[in-house]
Amino acid sequence: MNRGHRLLSVAVLSFLAPEPVRAGNETGVLFVDRASALPVRQSYEGEWNHFVGGGLAVLDCNDDGRPDVYAAGGAAPSRLFVNASAKGGEIAFAERPIQPLGAVTGAYPLDVDGDGHLDLVVLRDGPNMILRGEGACRFSSAPPEWTFDGGREWTTSFSATFERGQDWPTLAFGNYVDKTDPQGPFEACDRNYLIRPQGRAFGPRIALEPGFCALSMLVSDWKRNGVPDLRISNDRQYYVRNGREQMWHLEPLAEYTEAEGWPELKLWGMGIASRDITGDGLPEVVLTSMGDQVLQFNEGGGVMRNAPWSVGTYSTVPYKGDDGRPSTGWHAEFGDVDNDGRDDLFIAKGNVDQMPSNAIHDPNNLLIQQPDGTFVERGDAAGVGTMDRARGAALVDLNGDGLLDILVNNRRAPMEVWQNATAGAGHWLALDLSLPGSNRRAVGAIVELRLPDGRVLTRENTIGGGHASGAAVPLHFGLGAYDTAEVRVTWPKGSVSDWAPVHADGVFRVAPGEGEGLTISRLGGAP
Amino acid sequence: MTGLRRILAGVTVPLALLCAVSSGVRAQPAVTLPEPLTDADFPSHPQAEIDLGRLLFWDPVLSGNRNISCATCHHPRLGTSDGLSLGIGEGGRGIGPDRKPDPADYPEQRIPRNAPGLWNVGARGFTVLFADGRIEVDPGRPTGFRTPLEDEMVSGFASLLSAQTMFPVLSSDEMAGHYEENDISTLVRQGRLTGPGGAWAAIAARVAAIPVYRQMFSAAYRDIAAGREIDFADISNAIAAYMTFDFRSDSAPFDARLRGERRLSPQAEAGMSLFYGKAGCSACHSGPLLTDMKFHAMGDPQIGPGKAERFENHQRDTGRMKVSNNPSEAFAFRTPSLRNVTLTPPYGHAGAYRDLRAYLMQHSDPGSALNTYSVSDAILPGLELGKPDFAPGDGGADFNAIAAAAAAAPRHLLVAAEIEDILAFLKSLEDPVAVAGGRMGIPDAVPSGLEIDG
User: Fold this and answer.
1) What's the angle, vertex CA B140, arms to CA B139 and CA B145, rounded to 5?
2) CA angle, corner B264, sides to B258 and B270, nearest 5?
């Protein structure tokens, strides 16, 4: 602790605590419609091959501290929108040219080659692409020497990790239906692929079989034993009978079995959200589906257990409107939208297209976590309960005011931008992890934030999950009434830092310091 | 005790009523009877359209696996219903109580609700279709209708009944079939319904490929004769025209009574007085169609699969609430028309009662029979299923919640003799046209050449 204090940068030490603000009052959660911030109509369009997908990739591609967004358009154009918001001001975007790609289903940002510029992995119905970031929001096709094989499948999910001893990431691509199967489309799920690096290039594709129509993938150290696994959420709509939710050991590559305690679970799986919400350091997961949205508590030792109904996250049917059929969930993401120190949950909802079994008017959920750990629906009161066919989404601070804003990509309806205007929100901070050399963004690190009351907020720095959507942005924490906290980082290679103090209401770069210390430097934010 | 004796005893009905009836003129009403149905209550259709609709109604070509038609579960010899509590749709063989699962195409589950009779469904006053009203006239919606497709609903359907007719063909359990069994079921499960690549277009293309149908559509619809393609809405319009014509029922003794032509039997008159009086039936079974087109939680037992989607585990049927999303409408179902009710057993939204008397007994005290209900009161064809037909309790069909929802329903405790009187009145709703199975009879063959469920 003392050492951590010593290593704080001058900027942080000179930071003055602001006037105390009251802890987030959840009843005041409010978002303002800023869809007009987008200069053109952006939507996810297309026939059956774009019933699923519709992702958003959020990344700061011009290093101005404002996250930018790449939106999948399906059969319509996919576009890059550069964030032109003034600090604390109205959210604004400008379109920036990017290589036109057809049939894009989603995208995830990551720094493949460790050059400090985020690259974009673009998922498609057809060859997947890596767009290499060059800075200033310019992107070019990945150079041939990367030897990236994008396949030809209908790709709908992605995750990545940096495995031990590797400078480059391991990429996992999840595929949907094999459209070339004459017996399809049902019980015709394509295989998934893993691509491992070979030095500063990619090796051949390794099939992950069987595949069960993967709509979300996430590499996570879910047991907190330092050994990340690959979770795959699969859509029973197409695997029909013989399929399941999957977990894979990465080394050696093998699917978890019932014999080792991975119970068979069948879902209409669409999206994964992962976050420790019980305070024990182990990440819970939300698996979106049709009807019940499944929250599973992580009980340790590799045991996940369905949350009781009373937790309030099942969100089975629309909470407003006069359509009582079951909901269809897609992107799910945890984030503390009122900065009260408790993570909330956003779920993008919308009919597949014309499924009469499910609600046609299906509002997105904004579930606010209460002090007792239950969740209460505030989507309507907060203004974000739109009824369109939502798919991908992001919870991200777009205008640097410390409040998480919301982006939603809709099928056959315009993309949404929601500026968080919650009054009386609590303190916050955001941490941008940084490592020298490869894995510059410290993917796989685990960040713990200890509040003065002793509670520890745990965050795993992952790439993947959601629905075809990912963000590579500073990790956002709500602090409630506290304007200080302590941070500890478990770095991807396993070293654990000491606790270091950090002040609220700013964005800080966190890098390994001397010994077990941290170097913490302020990037932005203001009292 | 007969109804007449009780009337004479002055127990339930003022003597004035009896006198008025005896005089052979329209009752001096102690009860207010509805106005009779007239031609103005029914749309009229050209014979060519009716003839076309009749063949389509009987033609299995509209079903995904070409093995079931509208008539299979709405059979004129079974009161335009199927004589079963819960039918077997696609994947069954035979009709009525003889219907059996086809081992080569085994049904996944029973149809979750009782097949309703189709009497007068074409009447202008029939504004709410299906027991949950998921197809209904709704002036609050931009199109003026609620349908399961909401703003995605196609245009071209001529009436509410035609809109309704567009949906059973999309149900995997009713007509479409399952998974990749056929082109229709594949499109349905993919959620591709409208547009040139959708399930409706695929069914219309099947029909359009049959020359006899092409000729008949040209004869029925001028713009098709002029070259417009056959749309599924044309198919549903023709079927609706046929049902409107053939299943019109306004020649029962009750209709003569409404027109002031003839009185009913004394017992039926007594039953009618109860129905429109102290038994409270007409509070909901109102108007000439004997329905208020509204939704009421009446505590009927829930049996069968319930309205659970394939991704749900329960066996509940929350009725109107699943459509309206309004918790106050939990377990409420649209008041059924009682026309030809004696011809359409079993009774209740899930057909829990094969016997009308038993149904009435518990109906007069809503929810009272839930604790003692036995599924042996139903008529269910043999079917090996993953779930039991009877799943009471919170984890299944939720009988406790059904009882709670019915707690607010009015109670009109009736003695056995009164039940007999009401049954006699309900018998007066039986129309000779309906007993005969409608006006047009069963066709000898259909243009597809497929076998008819005659």
Assistant:
1) 55
2) 105
Sign of CA dihedral B80, B85, B91, B94: negative
CB-based contact, A176 to chain B, within 8 Å: no
- Residue B312 has its nearest CB partner, among A51, A291, A320, at A291
Give B371-412 pLDDT, tens digit per residue: 899 999 999 999 998 889 988 665 567 889 999 999 999 999
| B219 within domain boundaries | yes
Helix (H, G, I), strand (E, B) or coil at A110: strand
Among candidates A186, A354, A357 on the partner chain, residue whose Cβ is nearest the Cβ of B152: A354
- Is B57 part of a structural domain of the chain? yes
What lies within 8 Å, CB to CB, of A212 at 6+ separation is: A189, A232, A234, A235, A239, A243, A244, A246
User: What tokens does A384 get?
Assistant: 């974000």
Kindly report the CATH number assigned to the domain that includes residue B132: 1.10.760.10
Last residue of a domain, one of B217, B249, B281: B249
- Region A306-313: mean pLDDT is 97
B326 lies within 8 A of chain A by CB: yes
The answer to whether B150 contacts A361, with C-beta atoms less than 8 Å apart, is: yes
- Locate all alpha helices (DSSP H) within B23-77, ordered by sequence: 47-58, 70-73
Tokens of B64: 């995904």
Return residues 317-346 of A near B (CB < 8 Å): 317-318, 320-326
Q: What is the domain extent for residue B337? A: 253-433
Q: Which of A48, A268, A356 sits opposite B148 (nearest CB)?
A: A356
Give the span between the Cα atoms of B268 and B254, in whole angstroms.
9
What is the predicted pLDDT for the residue at B16? 34
| Single-letter code of the amino acid located at A80 | L
The CA angle B3-B7-B10, to the nearest 5 degrees, is: 145
Considering only residues 285 to 314 of chain B, which have any Cβ-Cβ distance to chain A shorter than 8 Å?
309-312
Q: Are B174 and B235 found together in one domain?
A: yes
Helices within B221-341 (DSSP H only): 222-225, 232-246, 253-258, 266-275, 320-324
Please name the residue ranges forming H helices in A111-251. Answer: 236-239
Q: Which residue of A has its CA nearest to B134?
A: A323
Average pLDDT over residues A286-315: 97
Threshold 0.90, pTM exceeds: yes
Cα torsion angle, B362, B367, B372, B377, sign: positive
Query: In Å, what is the CA distance from A485 to each residue of A441, A448, A481, B87?
Result: 22, 10, 11, 64
A217-275: pLDDT as tens digits: 999 999 999 999 999 999 999 999 999 999 999 999 999 999 999 999 999 999 999 99
* Closest to B7 (Cα-Cα) out of B25, B27, B26: B27
Q: How far is CA A298 from CA A234, A277, A303, B8, B280, in A?
A: 20, 10, 6, 75, 56
Q: Give, in degrees to the nearest 5, the angle at Cα B252 between B247 and B254.
A: 130
Angle, CA A330 vertex, CA A151 and CA A292 arms, to 5°: 130
* DSSP H or E stretch at residue A141: strand A139-141
Contact A367, A344 (CB under 8 A): yes
Each residue's pLDDT tens digit, B283-307: 999 999 999 999 999 999 999 999 9
φ/ψ (deg, to 5) at B351: 65, 35
Q: Are residues B299 and B166 in the same domain?
A: no
Which helix (H) or strand (E) covers residue A341, if one does? none
H/E element, B185: helix B183-190
Q: Cα B347–B350–B354 angle (5° rounding)?
A: 35
Number of structural domains found in chain B: 2
Q: Which of B309, B318, B320, B398 to mutate to test the interface with A (most CBs of A within 10 A)?
A: B309
Neighbours of A1 (CB within 10 A): 11
Q: Which of B147, B149, B150, B321 to mutate to test the interface with A (most CBs of A within 10 A)?
A: B150
